Records
---
Amino acid sequence: MIRNLSELSDREYDLVIVGGGIFGVCAAWDATLRGLSVALVERGDFCQATSANHLKVVHGGIRYLQHLDVYRIYESNKERNAVLRIAPHLVQPLPIIVPTYGHGMQGKEILSLGLMIYDMMVFNRNKGLNDPDRRIPRGHIISRQECLHLFPDLEKKNLTGAGVFYDAQMYNPPRLALSYLRSAIESGAQAANYLEAIDFLRKGDRVVGVKVRDRFTCNEFEIRGKVVLNSSGPWAEGLLESKMGITVSPEQTYSRDACFVIPRRLTAEYALAVQGRTSDPDAVISRKHRHLFIAPWRDYTLIGVWHVVFKGSPDEFTVTNEELQDFIDEVNQGYPSLDLKLEDVSMWNAGIVLFGKNKPGADDLSYGKRSLLIDHAKKHNVQGLITLIGVRATTARGKALKAVDVTFKKLGRNVPKSKTDVTPIYGGQIECFEEFLSDAIEKRPSTLDADVMRPLLHNYGSRHHDVLKYIKEDHILAEKIGTSKVIKAEIIHAVREEMAQKLVDVVFRRTDLGTGGYPGDDALKKCADLMAAEMGWNDNRIQQEVDEVRSAFPFLNKSK
């Protein structure tokens, strides 16, 4: 992954993609794998916005059963199965406990029926998954005693047991996106971060490319393409309106979806669903209140998700202390024994996503249900332009496939079958992850601590040797950064082979260093010094980069 801007302007591409979030990189991978020439540009870093900042769940669709939304159940199950198959290093099953109280709609009888119906609908949920650790078990009911053994602090009054179902969880969402992108680039795609699309190129009623600006040098140039895919998420509508005069109709609503991180495990291997304050107005079959989820993730705990209708610029949203405290209060109400406090939170994650239509001030919100794929030739009489605004990362591969199908039709070519559901992405050539890990630990360089191997293999999978090769050149690069399990070789690899341009790129998206909380001053300085030696930064630039990382932790005591 080399940031070579001169190559981008040297030719006309079949497809130019604007936006390097999960939907954009999946489209780049699908299109390249099917033989199209592709260029992708991203105004910031790849997967730096909503695609990185969510609850990290790959949904299997069980929640759509209460809406009787059969399409989304089948779609979610198919996409969960695909990503478990093609990215075995980055996605794994996540068991979730749903406590039941009394009988009727809140009891285990109805929940048991729902689990049975869901399992029948997703009978093919383990298609092609040979690794037993990657297979999704059937849902089942556990007794009151079993439930309390797992979560002894649960409210005991009227507790009758719990339902257990399985979704999946991403180890590191930005690395998943980078794996899709790396796969596309190794198959011939061109891509660049910090390259902003500032206008569409037009020839009559046809879009024939984009004009871009390098956000480091302010240089501007053109990238020509037969088809342009606008996949810039919450920025997509603004780009259309300001540069093309196109207004998407009906007007779309967006939500700021957020979760927060606790820097320790609150649960063991199971996530726990607790009831929040609000109800789902769209549910045909309802268990009274929406669930909030307390999920183990690496050495941390993720808690979410909460939604706020958002109408401002996607560049300007934030989460205030007051909002965070209100959500903590809601979590504590659903699970009082947690007794969480604001100072327990190491960081929050939030992004802007499509949402449902709601009346102003509504407490019980209607969520968005469909991603948006617009063929502007049909909708606005503009040829050569497609817009894709996705809702959930789970469905990114499948929605990207549909956008690429439209691209082929616009190019006047036969539409070949997509193979992204069966083709392992970068690092995904692994049959059985735990066996692969054991073998890698045994064969690791003698200077490398064994405890770094699991995160290393999760992040780089079968391509972890791309990182380890640097240790052969300099054994010092086997050292850890601060108290983390990130090694110095990962920093060098991020700069030389993964287009990292800034310290935030490495801390939040190329490595695990800052994904769970503030890594500490010493770790940041060591990481910045390694990058400075590669990038030629002076002391002022180093301090600027460190300050930018610090600003991402506005509510924290930096001495943690």
---
Amino acid sequence: MNIREKYKALFKIFFKQNKKVTVREAAAEAGTSKSSAQRYRKGVERRNLYPESFLWETEEGYNWLIILMCAVLYIFGIRNAVGMETISEFFKLIRLDKHIGVSPSSLYNLISEIEKSILEYKEKYENGNNVVGQSVVGADETFFDKMILVMIELSSGYIILEEPSEDRTYETWKEKSLRALKNLGIKPLYMVSDNAKALVKLGLKGIGCNRIPDLFHAMNEIVKVMGSRFANKAASTHRKLTESIYALDLLIESDKCSDEKIMKMQIQIEDLKSEHEYIIDGQAKYHKELHNFTKNVHPFSIDGSIPRTSEDVQRSLLIVIQSHKKLAEEFEIKDNKNKFNKVEKQIPDIAELIDIWWAWSKESILQFDLDEEKADWLLYYLLPSIYWPTQLKRTSSEALCDEYKNAVEQSQKNLENHPLTSTILDDEMEKYRNWADWMVSKFQRTSSAVEGRNGALSRMNHNQRSIPTTRLKVSTVIHNFGIKRRDGTTSAERLFGKKFPDLFQWIVERMGDLPLPRSHSLTS
């Protein structure tokens, strides 16, 4: 019997029996010495300082303390890298330091136990699982005191690879990523990444799949040319306009200026107003064309939800690039590093995603063994009615949201008006909708999940001034098995298509006895 079990036994004898017992009787029943039983009873009386104090002596209260300790260390200590000194202070503020050990050293030991338990969870539940069907992956690297290579299955958000590395060469990427993909049974149909040579080669040769340029990075090249230049021109003109208006007001107030000079300044101010409006109008056109770039990379047209091909998309994107070039020429914005040409070269590969996805969709519906009419209904009516609401949820731009809302309404109207829709039974419709949800998740234009993960790693690195190797491994497991989307699913559940035991509950169930507080707490 360890010390915690002995104290639980003494508590039941002293405080949960209807009859009063002597110290000698309690000691005999608990199998301990009389002096030990006496010290425990006095300790309970000394710790009973607050209304809730007695609760922590009960078995139910102690079990809740285990959950609280695990939750605080799991959420704040591990996931958010809050220091143990701060967490120790927190436990003292909520008056638990008389009941459990909350010193920084005790908390460090508990953190180590939790991390060990999380890694055991990974060994038990990740190994032996295989992905059914093809997948979409994204890859990139991020830099801190060490480089970390990150690869994610984009439709589920599952981290396939997250390892420190000395370099980011093709050979390194190939060795690490192929091993990780093989372990999980993942067979990528295509990979989304920036245009780093090692990543392009990894997709085409190392993994042996299609390689799609990241849409965000392509658009960012345009922003590098146009965004700050337009902003600077608008700010400069506005500043000159404000200064001129202020100078004119001073002249008028002084009564020492001729009408001719005042009129000359008023004309100058009007010219500046016109120039400012002209620049603002150009900036609005630039933003509109930037939106046109992203609006065109969809498998359906945004107006009418008509199926598109890679040729359609390529043609539209080339028009957008030409519009940007004309705007840059009109407003004397120089493309010194040939960013526009760089984006233009990527357009065929960006557009290729459309044909890849359509081929995947048409191959996938063969499982249903549908006639031509129902197959067309599924692909061209039900699928867009699922696709556009998903895109709407992903979009934060108000201008794009309005257009996507119209696309949602139109696609749903098209579905409702189709004669087959009313003939589909509920169970059958649910089956088709589940397929459509899955298929829509496979349309990935960017590696934003990887960029988001890099941002999370950056915050972690900043908070704890580095990322220890063990903490990185633990963080990967938490991301895959512990963090849930709004629908309540984890990345692992979405990737493998099955439920896993709750990670936090796993930790709680394997947490041993909480550390004892320091002297004059439990026993004195």
---
Amino acid sequence: MKNYLVPLGAYIVGSLPLAFLVGRAFGVDLRRAGTGNMGAGNAMRSAGLLAGGTIALLDGFKGIGAVVVARAFGMPLWGVVLTAVALVFGNNWPPARRGGRGLAASAGVIVTIQPWLILWPFTWSVIGWKIGGGFAGFFGWGFLPVIAVVSRQPTEIVVLTVCLALAMLVRRMQGNEGYVHAAAFFRAVYDTDRPWPGFASEDLGPPGSRRAWRYLVPLGLALSGYTVGVWWFTRGELVTLSVVSGLLLVAAVGTEFIGKWMFGAMFRDGVHRSGSEVSRSTAFRAALVGSGVARLIPAGGAITPVAMAWTARKEVRGTAGAAVRATALNYGGLLVGTGGALLWVWARHPTTAHREGIAGLGTVTLLIGVAVLFGSTRLASLARVLPGRLRDRFIPSLTNEGVDARTLGMVVARITSEAATLGLTLAAFGLHLKPSQTVAAFGASQIVGGLPGTPGGLGLTEAGLVGGLAIFGVPAAVALGPVLVFRVVSYWIPAAAGLVVGGMTFLGPRGGDDTDD
């Protein structure tokens, strides 16, 4: 009997109108204030930090209490999960009134059942201060099941994360005024009908939505297939991650997005040097699209600048040249860093296999990188040899400027952050390389993966990284699992983020003059 009464009691407790009562105590009716959502975020914007914090704590303690009570009654893990889900459903869909999104209640549940998993949504909540809480909530909770699967959590925990993600997504798609087909995508991802100023949800009628699914479904299938591959190849090696390993993987995601942020900063710097301005959030969005979505097609690296400029076009025109500059700096820095790391390995680690080949490859890579970096300082002059249409499009935002200390710092930060992602992922699996070896393996795999022929370097990057690690003493059988997880962290998650934040820019309506970059 307790297996039914405890979840029922949890649903009743979850449906208690604590947010409404707290709002009233602060003189605000949350049903009519702000977005109309009965949650901590709307309370914080409408009644202040104290009101929002109070609601978040109360909802979080509801989740904690439900799990504690279920365990006190001696319920098995399935019963505890059922009780937790009932609590969140009561919070989201209470009888006869509007509920919240359930994020605070879900956090309380996760903290009590599997504490280290909260690191993933917590990291995204911090990111949300910069890029928007609605989008951060989507990635923090919508992708939590992927983290649970990769870290080999028990089936009950995976089911819990799926239920929490669905509860959040469905509740957001419903909104506060009912389900709207044209705005469903934006509501699920951004928790708003208008993800950026001036965009009307009615601009995306059913045809636009159908076009969106053409992009979303293939990406979802590809990511799902890759996740299955990760599970298949690591099932014999990957045990349930410890708290330290989980923390390292969360940190790896953070460093990867720092690298993307720095790529956006390089783009923004180029726009500034050309006499225009673009916001940090738009530059970050352009970096995600250019380095993620654009590479979903073969030779996508070649269209990275166009993708970045197209993403930023709603805010500022004529940024293709700045995007070319950022891309040239990125590849030049990658080549120089890889070549320098290879030469460092050759000089400082005499026992490394294939030393002659490493020295030759390092020297050639370094020289090419220096040439690319030098070319990035003469882009305006180089562009004059382009055909007329391309020249007119690129030259307005191209400059002949040297690589100063600030630019060099951004390039170094970009490459270091992404190489650190590899180092942290390997460390999560108990593999530890020298920093120079990590940079060399990372850079070589990125160069190999950048060759035309496969979307996102799929297959080539993995093979190059496994081969690079083998040179440094990591057997291929041992390296394969960490490499696949690294690719999920470094490519698939950012690519999905790029599709979310920038994909609708491509799918949205094109005005009469939207043909320019």
---
Amino acid sequence: MSKQAGRMSQGANDFLAPYAPTIGTATDVGTGRAYNNGAATVTFTASGPNAADSFTVYAVEDTSKTATGSSSPLTVTGLASGTNYTFKVYGTNTAGGKGSDSSASNQITATTVPQAPSISSVSDVGTNRPFNNGAVTVNFSAGATGGKSITSYSASGYCSVHATTHSASGGSSPLTITGWGSGVSTTITVTATNDNGTSTASTASTSVTVTTVPNTPSAPSASTVANQAQDSVSWSAPDNGGKAITNYYWTSSDGKSGNTGSTSVTVNQEAGTAQTYNVRADNANGVSGTSASSGSVTTFSFTPFGFTPFGAFGAFGAFGAFGAFGAFGAFGAFGAFGAFGAFGAFGAFGAFGAFGAFGAFGAFGAFGAFGAYAFSAVSLAATTQVLVPGAPGSSKTAGELQVGDTLLALDIPNPANSDWINWEVDSSSISLSSENMVETQIVSLTTVPESEFIYVDGDLFSTTHYILVQKGAVTKFISAAEIDTSYKIFSPETGSFVDITLVETISMDLNKISINCEPYDNFFTTKMLVFDRPDPLQ
């Protein structure tokens, strides 16, 4: 008997194995797939008379990436993000084992969500930030795209003061997150998003403490000082916003003001006068809102019992019962100049003054009923720093400025009729640099309270303040209310136009200052070039 008896030949075994399937289409499956865990679905059709019990699809470029199942399609997972793959399929059965491989599929690029970004730094942005509306800037590096372009990044962190997560989104680094509670310490993470979804979060940043201006103090208490022509004013220290309070600025309703490092002050006042008091707090980030007014206090008059009851000169004075000059004085019953004075019943200049019933210039002034122009306040916050001559970067807050002070400006070609508001030029036709910097002098200042400002990279402006910007082929002045991060601003530090990082509308009770300079109609804050005076609207 043959030694091969009872054994099936290899040829017969091959005859029973499944035929090679017909490959179909390979399709990338990127949506929601984690980075470096891409997937592809592969379709195929069984062929030949020998049925397969199962089919296996594998990646030609990495045969460890496989998927097995009883029918088409099959999905292969674990694919590296951004990598190209083709696929083959074969069938198996119990009778013949593994069948032949199909031909290769079309090529796909495996895509996933992006790789997590890497944070390089986080920093507090405290300057002029309102109390409990702090800001943090996050710098980061992008990870791999996951095979599809990254469309946005999001930075976030938890705020224990507000018991919520604050976040900000944008197309690139850095991102600035606003709305933080003053004094809170937090860490930040960043994610990246593409058309497939959002990455895992980055490793958390180092801790950052968020600071702002101080909280608005509560109304002070005011009382008169016994036997002195003085008022005593005191208040409670407010929350410092995360940075030490360096100064309190107080004002009285009769125009007096001053600074102190303590929470009380004694004010010399005129005996018998009544006034109220307000106070604000300052720290390195700026100034708080102004407190509500104290109760009215009447300054103590000198005691009537400290001297001889009617004075040193007798019951009615040294000069007799009604004075040295007779019962009504030396000049007659109503005075030397007649019953109503030397100049007639209403004065030398007529019933309502020398210039007519309402003054020399007519009922409402020299320029007509309401004046030649109506003015729209073009103003910046009292806390915004403006550049002054001196060492590079020398500055004063707008609230410190006085008429006659010199500011730094830029020599720009004048438009027709000095119409700066409608001035617009082709960016390629104008060359601006630090060499164009000149000096200009303040000729007038106007101060009024305001409750809404536009925050542009640390400077606060009224909504109608005009700022020099550049966008593509156009350079012009636009109002703060129109500005966004698509514009560039002219930086005195670089002498060129730079990107804007953050624009935000902020509610905050501060004075706004309108500044008029000559001979140039602009001046520099520490961050940008701005228009200098009210806009005359016809």
